[in-house]
Amino acid sequence: MDTLLLARLQFATTTSIHFLFVVVTLGLVTLLVGMQTAGVLTGNPKWERLTRYWGQLYVINYVLGIATGIVMEFQFGLNWSGLSRYVGNVFGAPLAIETLVAFFLESTFLGMWIFGWHRLRKGVHLALLWGVAITAYASAFWIMVANSWLQNPVGYEVRDGIAHLTDFGALLTNPSLGMAFGHVVSAALLVGGMVMAAVSAWHLIRRTTDFALFRTSLRIGLVTSALAISLVQGFGFAQFGPVGGVQPTKFGGQSPEAQALIAEWTARFGPGDYTPPVLASVGLGFMILTGFTLGCVWLLLPLLFRDWIIRLRFPLWLTLLALPLPFVAVILGWIAREVGRQPWVAYGLLSTEQAVSPVGAPVMLTSLIGFSLLLGTLAVTNWVLLARHAARGAADPPLGRPPAPPGEPAHPEPALV
Amino acid sequence: MDLAWYVLLGLFNACYLVLAGYDYGVGLLLARGGGAAERRAALTALGPFFLGNEVWLVAAVGILFGAFPLLEGELLAGCYPAVAGALAGVVLVTAGVQLRSRSTDERVRARWDRVVMIGSALAALGWGVLLAALLQGVPRQADGHVAGVSHLVTPFAAAVGLALVAVVAVHGATFLTLRLPSADAAVVGRTARRLVPVALTAVALATVVGLLSSRVRDAVQRPAVAVLLPVLLVAALLAARAALARRRPGWALVATGAALALPVGLVGAALWPYVLVSTTDPGASLTVADAAASAPTLRLLGWVALPLLPALLGFQAMCWWVFRGRTDGRAPVYW
Fold first, then answer.
1. How far is Cα B273 from Cα B285, in angstroms, rounded to an integer?
2. pLDDT 10s digits, B193-250
3. Is residue B330 part of a domain?
4. How near does any CA of chain B get to the CA of A104, in Å?
5. Residue B207's closest CA among B218, B198, B216?
6. pLDDT for B68-119, tens place per residue?
7. Domain ranges of chain A
8. Do B51 and A406 touch (CB under 8 A)?
């Protein structure tokens, strides 16, 4: 096996696992902000209970987001040292900004939010969650700036074979950025909404305690999902224009523009296979089908009237069974975007072959197997824990549990954790 | 401009080692055979700081990529096993600490604690080997790539790795002495004091092996600075021991923190103006200036970092202030 293929496989594995978790993080944190804000404004304890229950799931999910995120960051240097050597002057900037502006603050805020219940004033505690959410969106934005630059390199000039930054503004107005960012963010909202609706549906099907609580979160989840799926579809189709303009070969090399570009590359870089694997377009087709299927969530909204959705029960089952769909769709979407830029790391500028680190295949294979096993095992463990905590209900989640009142014996080992 | 960014890179790396250093130290100390309650108390002491500590690594690598892209690629790919090992360790600690209490079964928790312990050891060992790799030079060829990974397998790399594990353990024990309720602090304070001679031995061993290694002698550009490093390390460790004996855990933590921050600065200074010294081709050594991104990139990042740094430090300081003091029965328990 050659190093390049192994490095690409590792990138695909790590990125996919990473995205399955960050997409939930981004969606849930938005809904959590809404719930905690409602709690502070109205003083209704229902919102605090909802925030603690969903916050608990959010925090468990976040663990894998951060763990895989760290691996993602190191992977560029470990496996793709050519990327930093040839285009690091440009591509490195948005990534550096992301770590400082977003990732760093997000984790700092989240640590204080988790441990700040009953310790900080309500307003400060709420502000921390707002901080977590804002930096999470900033993180998504800067990562998309970096990724869009790989799809369509702009704002640089090549001197002595190395790309130098000339116009940072061009990175922010990149045609492959705007609609894609909207698409990703609304996909995250869709996933967050669907997770909330599906878990609530499970509790309502099982007739567990806390009917009122899960009724509320079912409604929030479904309305969010419906609004989000329309945004997903809108931003998704709006991408075809700009993407086709800057990456004509993305969905196959048949069009005249694609043929012209391939002829130009052949003249500049020599003959080679410049069309991406068909995997990219096939995945895209399935993603669009899934997207239309999920559009049916609008049909469930009228059933919210007088709780028909709960009384009829089968819509609850539909909601629960549909949960894997948005996850499948987001992975297929990323495969289309990433595989579609093959054989380039930076489209038309740097090939994957030039960018891969000159390490031996045995080292790369060990790394691929090791990290895939490590992250895969952690991902499965994390999902099991999420499912267990989701099923346990909102009776007394450890997150935000009030400390023992003074005078009573302190119990550092709460009974129910 | 290059120098300013190099200093900032060093600052973030040093902060990472000092802050996450006590995370890993506490992780290592989970092995000291205490009961379930004791292990949980240690993690509660870490509690609110844990996420904020680990993230210094992310920021440090962000700066490395943005401001020193060439170094990022060559260093990480060129020292692949050390970086990958440390990375696996960091992932295990991150996941282990945050997930261990999500199960109610004490046996499952104990298993997670072993994961945290192994992860902490791996992380400290990996970063120690990376530090040693800088000091002993790498086989960088004329084409700019580091050849192979066997250059990492030296007695010096092993000695530095073990020394870092030992110093991190002292640091973690000192942190717990400062943070646990007074009664438990006395016990862990004794552990910290007993660990100091171990760390001193490990540092001495690494020093001797380093002095005997021709690669280290050749790679170091400023021998005086390099010799100063073990001297200051020993001084810091002795100061920590003295402070612990006088029940001044705050000062002891400052001393052990200095023992983790000093190597970053002094290794950088000892190699200056180089950052990667080639053992095979003197012309292929990489200077800090050559490793840095071009001027427009550094200028842009400068404008971003300038207003941001006070905010980053301010919010971290807010975290330390809000959760200062010893833990007690009312301390929030989550990990």
1. 10
2. 999 999 999 999 999 999 999 999 999 999 999 999 999 999 999 999 999 999 999 9
3. no
4. 6
5. B216
6. 999 999 999 999 999 999 999 999 999 999 999 999 899 999 999 999 999 9
7. 3-392
8. no
| Residues of chain B found within 8 Å of residue A389, distances taken between Cβ atoms | 102
Domain of B147, in residue numbers: 2-322
Rounded to a whole number of angstroms, the distance between the first and last alpha carbons of chain B is 42
CB contact under 8 A, A96 and B312: no
Q: What ipTM score was computed for the predicted complex, to two decimals?
A: 0.95
The candidate with the shortest Cα–Cα distance to A284, out of A212, A227, A332, A331, is A332
B66/A111 CB distance under 8 A = no
Specify the pTM.
Answer: 0.95
Number of residues written out for chain B: 335
The answer to whether the CB atoms of B76 and A77 lie below 8 A apart is: yes
Kindly identify which residue of chain A lies nearest to residue B308, measuring between CA atoms: A101
Are the beta carbons of B20 and B60 closer than 8 angstroms? no
Q: Is there a domain that residue B283 lies in?
A: yes
Is B314 contained in some domain? yes
Number of domains into which chain B is organized? 1
Count CB atoms within 10 A of the CB of residue A386.
22
Residue B327 resides in a domain: no
Amino acid at A378: L
